[in-house]
Amino acid sequence: MDRTVGLALAALALLAGCAAELPALPSFYRSLATPAAELDASAAQSMISGYRRNHGLDAVALDPTLMRLAAEQSRAMAQRDRLDHSAGGAFRERIVRSGFDAAVAVENVGAGYHTLAEAFSGWRDSPSHRANMLHRAVTRMGIAAVYAPHSKYKVFWTLILAAPDAPRG
User: Fold this and answer.
1) CA nearest 138: which of 44, 69, 48, 28?
2) Reported pTM
């Protein structure tokens, strides 16, 4: 019996050593439906840019103004517990108020997706959201996910894609 216990402990020790070597879960698969979770904006930018490149389009860059706007919109939806483009005000008005002089701007919102991969897949599989991600003119993006613990959705998403207007001279 003692030998069996010894072998079992040795096997557990080996398994524990193997478990420590498992690679970390890629950020786009991490659940954002927890209080401490943070969206990996660089992973989102890479994912969306790769999707655009696969369709013959240029990559998009993260933009601090669009990141702030996306966060504000996601927070507004979370506070109202409602998936709604106008939760933070009309989209065009939000863009103008931000000071981002947009030649073009489009927005995807979502709720209930717990991971970046799920949100991206949902947008990719929706014709209007896919069209926004593949808009030829956009060059910049902002993205946010806000956790809402008391909501049935748990996570509210906003993706804003835009291109600045050409400087006037």
Assistant:
1) 48
2) 0.84
